[in-house]
Amino acid sequence: MTIRPLAALRVLAIAGTAALLGACSSTPSAPARTEPAPRASFAVDHDAWRSLGYRWEWTSRPPRLPGGVIEFVDAFEDLLVVQDSRAMLSVVEGPTGRVRWNKQVAETNTRFLGNARRNGSVVVTNETELFEFDLRTGNTLDRTPIQGIATTKPVFYGRLAVLGTAAGRLIALDTDNNIRVWEYQFDGQIDSPPLRLDGERVAAISTRGQVRSLFIDGPRTQSSARISGDSAEMMVSDGELLFIGSLDQSVYGYDLNDGHRLWRLRSSRPVTVQPVLHNDVLYVTTADTGLAAIDAVSGEMLWSNQRLGGWVVATNDDTLIVWTGADLLSVDPARGDLIARTRLPDVAGIRADRLENGNLYAIARDGSIAKFSPR
Q1: How far is residue 158's CA from residue 188's CA, in Å, rounded to a whole number?
Q2: pLDDT in tens, 83-94
Q3: Is pLDDT above 80 for 251?
Q4: In the chain, is it the N or the C terminus that has fewer CB atoms within a 10 Å radius of its CB?
């Protein structure tokens, strides 16, 4: 089951990415624009949202360039970062929906790969450069050449940006000095974004199924494993265990300390829906199980519901909030029973600013974004 009604809304944003440490050099830039949130046409069914345990807060329409569609949305507890397909970047204030600033990143034909937050800045990645902007003002802080073709957005460790390249290398760029500090060769291209395990380790997977966790000083290998295919969505981890939903028709659980495979759940089709880890339970959708809850350590199937599928975007008062690509569901986490369902035909994607009791953001097909808070 593939949940990708808007293919570009691929970046995982179940909860806001934590602000990471690090400074960078600065360069002058023109002042950024600030404007109020304009009125939008997205119609809100208040009763339907109320049945799921949410109330409407605001609707905003971030500016887009002619012909542009929303491509990336990252939700944090204080703001949203929105980018369209023409590289128009907007920062929307979480409490009010006000567009703080917006600007076109660059007039370029290169592909953009997503955005990452680092302290008070946002880093925009295309295939050849990292662009860093002040989240408060929109001023340009830095531009870092990648010296190769990037295939993923980065994760940050202080001034180090770690990302994948088309040459099959995981690289670390010093964004202060614009130099490549290290690189690690994989046996296939790295298409899935690397996963920040903690302040010292990163995990990555290649298109040929090579999985490694690395200490970033060096780098040094912590553990390695091999599966038969790539991960369609981001791997997830609690720092000790690593979980992969794979195109080789399996879901895996691995021990990061030694790379030992703890369990494997096979499927008759590739696993293409984002797995989510919460309270030692992995929630995942496969073609055979539907939405399922798996004990993270043992791999035991706690429950499955073949009538449901989707991606767990948040929890709300001990219920699971699941986006199917067309419907938003409230599901009992203990048994997998459906509590409530509402169809959202005008919505292309859902984001939450945190997993537990977070605010939800509905990204409408008309380009507007609506915020809903737990009741």
Answers
A1: 27
A2: 999 999 999 999
A3: yes
A4: C
Long-range own/partner contacts, residues 299-305 (CB < 8 A, 24 or more apart): 299/253, 299/262, 299/263, 299/264, 299/265, 301/265, 303/334, 303/335, 303/336, 304/336, 305/331, 305/336, 305/337, 305/338
Question: Cα(233)–Cα(224) distance, rounded to whole angstroms?
Answer: 19
Cα distance from N-terminal residue to C-terminal residue, the chain: 31
Tokens found for residue 225: 């494993």
Average pLDDT over residues 143-167: 95
What phi and psi, each to the nearest 5 degrees, are found at residue 194?
Answer: -60, 155
Using 50, 70 and 90 to split pLDDT, how confident is the model at 41?
low
Count CB neighbours of 292 within 10 A: 24
Residue 222 CB partners (closer than 8 Å, separation 6+): 201, 212, 213, 214, 215, 256, 257
How would DSSP label each residue in 200-234? SEEEEE-TT-EEEEEETTTTEEEEEEE-SS-BSS-
3-state secondary structure (DSSP) of residue 285: strand
Residue 316 scores a pLDDT above 50: yes
Q: How many CA atoms lie within 13 A of 76 on its CB side?
A: 21
Beta bridge partners of 18: none
Residue 42 is predicted with a pLDDT of 79
Per-range mean pLDDT, top range of 13-17, 24-28, 332-336? 332-336
- Model-level pTM? 0.88
Tell how strand 195-196 and strand 201-205 pair up. antiparallel
Helices (H), the chain: 46-51
Paired tokens of 61:
């329409």
